[in-house]
Amino acid sequence: MPQEERANPVAVAPVAPDRSWAPRWRALLEARWQARLRDVTELSLAYHAAAAASRELLCRAIVARRKLADVEEALGRLAAGTFGYCEQCESPIPDALLAAVPERRYCPRCEAGAGPAPALSGRSQA
Prior knowledge:
By secondary structure, the protein is mostly helical.
């Protein structure tokens, strides 16, 4: 008589975090996007208006553009349903870290260079 296959009693299906607060994140990210866009616009106008633009102004404009792009990418992840998950290991990023930096892309473990956590992904692979 063949043995019945048994499910591993240790394996637990990952539970998707409650993301019902997505509209709050969208509003926060859109406000940050508007602020970053204002910064980029002001710095770009100042840069182009100056006959001999200083290197510092150029560096500030580059940083402001990168920050704007970071927020735009976060809005894209929010629309795609991947906001709040690490881009490397797909584990959930703690809400407290997202509250501090909503455009955050990586969990603390991956950001520190320790590599993906050995546990299963926090997002279902449907």
